[in-house]
Design brief:
With 351 residues, the protein is of the alpha/beta class. The chain is built from eleven helices and 13 strands. The protein is 40% helix and 14% strand. Strands 3-2-1-4-5-6-11 form a seven-stranded parallel β-sheet, sandwiched between helices. Strands 7-10 form a two-stranded parallel ribbon. A two-stranded parallel ribbon has the order 8-13. Helix 4 links the parallel strand 5 and strand 6. Helix 2 crosses helix 3 and helix 3 packs parallel to helix 4. The longest helix has 22 residues. 46% of the residues are buried.
């Protein structure tokens, strides 16, 4: 690898991609794009991850393979409601195209997966529980990410699989290129739209700031690591559900929002009593929102902490409890500012 490696980056317009671009400023970055524009890359290359040769003509593909030293594969469908066909088309079949390029280029692959591949047994379908009216199907996403990992492992190319947990905003500012699923729950909490959370109070909620994921990937690229699995998580420092709610409530107080802390309830009680008695009488849209939340929170209910590779030689330090709590507060405040929630930010709007 040259002193200024050429890196092909997929998913450059996404949450991790936008955070990663400034971390790789000492590399020559070619961003493979489909539709979304990207700022900060040295070159933009229009292509299609689901097509042969990435949608490039043979000459352009050969020219790309001659230049690329490293591929960082961040592109993925992360929406739990996209359905199995679309999800596998990008997350599994798209990874096959990337692996082929890595082999043709004699490059190294850094493949972004998810820590939740370790929790496929916690989806509601795996637990034998009804999905209700949920549009969110985490099992489709997790199946596709496990399949993508298998594509990488069976390919024989030098590759590192990177598994972040839930990604939130920047640890200092809370800024993020697009709000994610956890932000939707945070917003609902601030608006008082969640009278209960279908999680035991002690269940760990593992999230990691986007800048920690980005600095980890950049460290791996610079070190030239060529194999293994890296877990980018809070691990044993993940906050309990009750502590998350307490911190959001404290941030709400700073914002001038009178937030009632919701009750934490196990999913068995939800299925046995709350859904049939209370949720069944709600408006269909409200029922679907609740069932979507139920599907997502099943991945945390009673789960053991994720492994955590942070703090290992050459990687960023692991986050202590104070850092995890500070990052959550930053994301809550940024979300509130962006949505103009609470007296603190409403007072800043010109009359």
């Amino acid at each position: 690898m040259s002193s200024t490696p050429t890196v092909l980056l997929t998913g450059a317009s996404g949450v991790i991609g936008t955070a990663l671009l400034p971390e790789l400023s000492d590399c020559h970055i070619i961003a493979l794009v489909h539709h979304a524009p990207v700022l900060g890359a040295d070159e933009l290359l229009v292509g299609d991850l689901t097509a042969s040769r990435l949608g490039l003509d043979p000459a352009a593909y050969r020219a790309l393979a001659r230049r690329v030293d490293v591929v960082v594969h961040c592109a993925a469908i992360t929406d739990f409601s996209s359905g199995p066909d679309a999800t596998h088309a990008l997350n599994e079949a798209g990874t096959r195209q990337i692996v082929q390029l890595v082999a043709d280029a004699d490059a190294v692959l850094y493949h972004l997966s998810t820590a939740f591949v370790a929790r496929t047994e916690l989806t509601r379908s795996s637990l034998g529980r009804e999905a209700g009216e949920a549009g969110a199907r985490p099992e489709d996403y997790l199946d596709s990410k496990r399949a993508g990992e298998q594509v990488v492992r069976s390919s024989g190319v030098p590759a590192v699989i990177i598994r972040p947990s839930v990604v939130i905003g920047d640890s200092r500012t809370g800024e993020i290129s697009a709000f994610q699923g956890m932000h939707g729950i945070l917003a609902a909490l601030l608006r008082g739209g969640l009278p209960l959370i279908p999680l035991p109070a002690a269940s760990p909620v593992d999230f990691i700031p986007q800048d920690v994921v980005a600095t980890t990937i950049a460290a791996l690229v610079r070190s030239g690591r060529r194999e293994g699995e890296v877990w980018v998580t809070a691990g044993e420092q993940a906050l309990a559900t009750a502590r998350v709610l307490e911190l959001v409530s404290e941030a709400a107080g700073e914002l001038g929002v009178d937030m009632a802390v919701p009750r934490t309830v196990g999913q068995e009680m939800v299925d046995r009593l709350i859904r049939p008695v209370f949720i069944a009488n709600l408006h269909p849209r409200a029922r679907r929102r609740f069932d979507d939340m139920l599907a997502m929170t099943a991945l945390f209910a009673g789960a053991r902490p994720f492994p955590n590779s942070l703090g290992q030689p050459g990687l960023p330090p692991h986050l202590d409890t104070a850092a995890v709590e500070s990052a959550l507060r930053a994301s809550v405040l940024h979300l509130a500012q962006a949505r103009q929630m609470g007296r603190r930010f409403a007072e800043q709007v010109p009359v």
